[in-house]
Amino acid sequence: MRPRPNISPAAIDRRPRLTSLDAPTPAHQYHFHLDPHRHRSTLSEVILGGQDGLVNVLGVILGVAAATHDAHIVLAAGLAATFAESVSMGAVAYTSKQADQALYESERNRERRHVAAVPEIERDEIRQLYRQKGFSGELLEKIVETITANRDVWVAVMMAEELQLMPVPRGRALRSAARVGLAAMVGSLLPLLPFFFLSVGRAMWVALAVAAATLFAVGAYKAVTTVGQWAKSGAEMAVIGVASALVGYGVGLLFQVGPTP
Q1: pLDDT digits (tens, 9 = 90+) for 50-73
Q2: Do residues 25 and 18 make contact, with C-beta atoms less than 8 angstroms apart?
Q3: Which string of DSSP letters, residue by residue, matches 78-134?
Q4: How far apart are CA 43 and CA 30, in angstroms?
Q5: How far apart are CA 65 and CA 200, in angstroms?
Q6: pTM of the full structure
Q7: Helix segments in the chain, DSSP class H
Q8: Cα 245-47-86 angle, rounded to 5 deg
Q9: C-alpha angle 46/93/102, rounded to 5°?
């Protein structure tokens, strides 16, 4: 994993500025390439789908393996869980985004009604919002006047500042469903692969090791690309995921149908 560049804003400001006709400035390189912004939804969706698929399917196959010690049954249960989990997670991602958009549209229509019916109350809410940001006096009134002069801007500010709601871009629901579903499938298949090549007893240990290593890597990557200590984040995700999957193993032990090989 590549370490973050240790470049201070002051150092960037002291570097020579180039015109738009020249090559990109060091500041441009830093802002857009060396330390770019991360898209929260994409990262969270991949982690959600991958972690959920891996942990759930690992729990299923460990439980079935503990109960039967039959590789064919383990694989059947694991593959069934893999595809059901992937489709389910993708569907949940899609419907949740659709629900977010429905909520946004509902509240936007309500704000429009309020602006039309009780404009003074809505105008005072704008005033309170920007007073809390530190504006006052003539400047505050100028901000209120500017925002409320355009009804679309007025409603948009109320949605973002007061209700903390943002619209869901067109196509976001389908892209979210695809990312979550694909991540869930990849995560689900990882602990299942050892059962294609090893005995059930050995495959269980390998699956646990693969799952722990994968979860650790994902947790470390999350910390490196956002904030936090990579070792702590990786260990936390690995421990939580493996402990959750072992619950399935414990349930399987309660329903053993054959001798342990």
Answers
A1: 888 899 999 999 999 988 888 899
A2: yes
A3: HHHHHHHHHHHHHHHHHHHHHHHHHHHHHHHHHHHHHHHH-HHHHHHHHHHHHHHTT
A4: 21
A5: 7
A6: 0.69
A7: 9-14, 26-29, 40-68, 71-117, 119-132, 137-148, 151-157, 172-192, 194-197, 200-225, 230-254
A8: 70
A9: 135
